[in-house]
Amino acid sequence: MEKFNIVNFNSNQGNVDINYLNEKNAEKVINFHKSFPQYKETPLAELKELSKEIGLKNFYVKDESYRFGLNAFKVLGSSYAIGNYIAELLGKDMSELSYEKLISDEIRKKIGDIVFVTATDGNHGRGIAWTANQLKQKSKVFMPKGSSIERLNNIKAENSDADIYEYNYDDCVRLANKYAEENNGILVQDTSWEGYEKIPKSIMQGYMTLAYETYQDLKAKNELPTHIFIQAGVGALASSITGFFSNMMKDNPPTIVIVEPNKANCLYRTALENDGKLHNVTGDMDSIMAGLCCGEPITVGWEILAKYVKYFISVDDIYAAHGMRLLGNPLKDDKKVISGESGAVTSGVVHKLMTDKNLEKYKKEIGLDKNSVILCFSTEGDTDKERYRKIVWDGEYQSL
User: How far apart are CA 111 and CA 90, in angstroms?
Assistant: First the structure.
């Protein structure tokens, strides 16, 4: 049987500040994003037929493949963090800055030339490059070995200086940080460490746009989630979603489940040890879930996860492939979702939990049944089209 590992987590985490992920700040973030001409709310797919078939009350998937025409959600964090950085340079609040003001010659003259630097497997770097290009600024992007050439070319298409290096993701983060320090660049990274926390928090706030859209849609349907499954790399998105929904649903909080690849499961390992320390993963981390192949947890996010997350799951690649095929081939009137490897793994896990007899004890432990309303986030579309077709069309990764 394919590997499915789970931790029922109970920490002794005390008070945790999640106020920066509250509704007031979410409104500020989404108003900033709405000022972009590319903004359009991404669809929330309601999979009613699938829910009936597998024994759930309902199953929702937020489809981020439509975000700003970039086929992934990452630009939300990138653009907000860069906007926030520029606002601080100008001594302004983010509520005073819109897209039109940011791209104006007046702002450009005030802030001068900036090089925004980052490490990425593709989606985050594309968001940085796109934002910098919109602002007529420069970007420098470091990509780990094994990164998709298509994703590299998409970043280069935004006038970015980008290359693939013979290092893993976390080493590329260190390279990017070194480059920024030596070349007066600004590191915009979605992970954190001691002394580097402000920009990662801004990125987490930027991600609230997709959380806020989803919450408002579900609230209008009078069907808030009982369970949220969130995939994680370093854990920035997972921390953002967890903090936001924990704020918004204080009286009836959902069960939150984090999902990672077995080959890059730093949050799972940290939860498993539960010794107050962060536990990293090293080496190549060659999962097909490239966007989740990160070995070092986000420090500012872990305390949120430790406080509010109930389960951490670590799985093999076939769960991601299963989710891709599942979402790309909907039942009857269910909406089709083109979801990439990192975007589909949570849906694959939910479906397997509900249908695989070998996982029945975990289904019961998590509390999945006919009264459950599931929320997943498809964070990317087919950002690597060749791999997507090999998996969905040709049937790669059906078994180990």
Answer: 8
Max CA distance (Å), the chain: 63
What mean pLDDT is predicted for residues 130-158?
96
So what's the pLDDT on residue 13?
Answer: 76
Considering just the CA atoms, what is the radius of gyration of the chain in Å?
20
Burial of 252 (0-12, 13-18, 19+ CB in 10 A): exposed
Pairing mode of beta strands 44-46, 58-63: antiparallel
Nearest 5 degrees, angle CA 273-CA 275-CA 277?
A: 95
DSSP 193: B
Q: Which two tokens stand for residue 207?
A: 């991600």
Question: How far is 317 from 354, CA to CA, in rounded Å?
Answer: 18
pLDDT single digits (tens) 269-291: 999 999 999 999 999 999 999 99
- Cα distances from 379 to residues 52, 199, 218, 238, in angstroms, run 24, 21, 18, 11
> Residue 124: which of 68, 186, 166, 75 has the closest Cα?
75
* pLDDT at residue 300 greater than cutoff 60: yes
Q: What are residue 276's phi and psi, to 5 degrees?
A: 85, 5
Alpha-carbon distance of 393 to 82, in angstroms, equals: 38
User: What is the average pLDDT score of the chain?
Assistant: 96
CA distances from 36 to 31, 62, 101, 190 (A): 9, 20, 11, 22
Chain segment 32-66, per-residue pLDDT in tens:
999 999 999 999 999 999 999 999 999 999 999 99
Rounded distance between C-alpha atoms, residue 345 and residue 126, angstroms: 21
Residues in the chain: 400
Q: Using the Cα atoms of residue 245, residue 251, residue 252 and residue 253 in order, give the sign of their dihedral.
A: positive
Distance CA(319)–CA(347), nearest Å, equals 8
For residues 278 and 249, what is the distance between their CA atoms, to the nearest angstrom?
28
Catalytic residues: 74, 121
Tell me how far apart the alpha carbons of residues 124 and 189 are, in angstroms, rounded to a whole number: 9
Quick one: pLDDT at residue 400? 54
